[in-house]
From TrEMBL:
SMART domains: HTH_MARR (SM00347)
Pfam families per the UniProt record, alphabetical: MarR_2
Ranges of residues in domain HTH marR-type: 11-148
PROSITE patterns registered for this protein in UniProt: HTH_MARR_2 (PS50995)
Protein name: MarR family winged helix-turn-helix transcriptional regulator
SUPFAM superfamilies associated with the record: Winged helix' DNA-binding domain
Domain of life (superkingdom): Bacteria
Xref: InterPro entries: HTH-type_Bedaq_tolerance (IPR052526), HTH_MarR-typ (IPR000835), WH-like_DNA-bd_sf (IPR036388), WH_DNA-bd_sf (IPR036390)
Native source organism of the sequence: Ferrovibrio xuzhouensis
Length: 164
């Protein structure tokens, strides 16, 4: 087999392992039960709002999360009833409503993310040697670069990933 074909096969294998590994890790991390019973979908909404740095419309939030706006309706109503988010009228377009985190939403999200990060760090410490932990850290830097280099996912990409 020519060298170019070997490299291509190795890259293809690496891409497949990376897809499977990151998907499995993401599934396990999402399956971690939140301390207060809030669902991973609701945490995702809170995290999306925090990333926005301010208010977002429901349609912008749906696009950021890669879901249909209709899917958000019930989740947003629940988060608003829990006083974790609040809606306000957009000052530049009074026809639009902006959704933002409340202080309680920010506190819950911060606490939950810290708890999850601590649990993951404990698993890393228990699973990997110090040398492997350093290698894993380097891999995270490479994953960040890879994520930045990839085009933004579309609904078609999500469907394709679900099939693989």
């Amino acid at each position: 087999m020519p060298v170019a074909d070997t490299r291509s096969a190795t890259l293809h294998d690496t891409a497949g392992r990376l897809q499977r590994g990151t998907a499995a890790l993401a599934r396990r991390l999402r399956a971690t039960a939140p301390a207060d019973g809030i669902s991973p979908a609701r945490l995702g909404i809170l995290a999306g709002l925090r990333r926005s740095g301010g208010g977002m419309t429901a349609s912008a939030l749906a696009a950021d999360l890669g879901i249909q706006p209709q899917s958000l309706t019930r989740l947003l109503a629940d988060l608003e009833a829990r006083r974790l988010i609040a809606r306000r009228t957009d000052s530049t377009d009074r026809r639009r409503s902006l959704i933002a985190l409340t202080p309680a939403g920010t506190a819950l999200l911060t606490t939950e993310l810290r708890r999850r990060r601590a649990a993951l760090a404990a698993t890393i410490a228990a699973t990997f040697t110090p040398a492997e932990q350093k290698l894993l850290h380097q891999a995270t830097l490479l994953l960040d670069r890879l994520a930045a280099a990839l085009p933004r996912a579309t609904d078609d990409d999500a469907d394709e990933a679900a099939v693989e």
